[in-house]
Design brief:
By secondary structure, the chain is mainly alpha-helical. About 80% of the residues lie in helices and about 0% in strands. It is found in: Cell membrane.
Length: about 110
Amino acid sequence: MAQHQSGAGSHGHDDSHGSVKSYVIGFILSIVLTIIPLFVVMNHMLSRTSTMVVILAAAVLQFLVQLFFFMHIRESNGPRWNVMTLIFGVVILLTVVGGSVWIMEYNMVAH
């Protein structure tokens, strides 16, 4: 019976994870962060490099919006293992992508 009561207590905590307000804010931010790069690309507003920077910045911001507004990454109790795992994954991703770009640039110069 104690397990059932503790489960009900944790279920009550789950109700506070997302409110309609937070979902609406996340949804609007996601739409804005999709429209901005689209608008920049369709109207040829910036140079190629600046356009890529805008696209990448919007992608990173949209990733953060998804994590915080929809996946509730900051609202867990106890150890922050999922945050540490996420940071480790991002470090590995940046290492692989950065290393690949560096190798491709080095090969272009060598030939």
